[in-house]
Amino acid sequence: MKLVKGYLGHDLQLEGSLSSSDSIRIDGNYVGSINSKCMVIVGALGKVKGQIDAPVIRVDGWVEGNIKASKLVEILENARIMGNISTPVGGLKMRIGSEFVGKFSVNSTDQSTNE
Fold first, then answer.
1. Are strands 80-82 and 13-20 parallel, antiparallel or unpaired?
2. Residue 18 lies in a domain
3. Which DSSP helix (H) or strand (E) runs through 34?
């Protein structure tokens, strides 16, 4: 696994649109969309209000918005998610103690099955 290159510390607040080809970790407050070509981690102190799109998304904090992963969404025990989650088949791990309010959908990565 790659090291996290983008980091928003617990005492920082940021608003906007964030895009990276590397991994991102959010431990502060972020409002806006997040797009990564690697992994997005929302730490236990992290709060995100907006959409997250990445191959792998790990949430241990608070997210209000839709989450879309092309490989895996991992929801840890401290996570509170209000929004829809979209993953491929077998792409959701949810630990006891977490909270999820929204819709969960499984998307096929093979577009030919939708025709």
1. unpaired
2. yes
3. strand 29-36
- Overall pTM > 0.85: yes
What are the pLDDT digits (tens) for 38-56?
Answer: 999 999 999 999 999 999 9
Other CB atoms within 10 A of residue 109 CB: 10
Task: Look up residue 114 and give its DSSP letter.
Answer: G
Say if CB 66 and CB 83 are below 8 A apart. yes
pLDDT given at position 3: 58
Q: Which domain holds residue 82?
A: 4-109
Number of residues assigned to the chain: 115
Assess if residue 115 is contained within a domain: no
3-class SS of residue 37: coil
HSE value, Cβ hemisphere, 13 Å, CA-based, for 85: 27
The number of distinct structural domains making up the chain is 1
Residue 3 in tokens: 């090291």
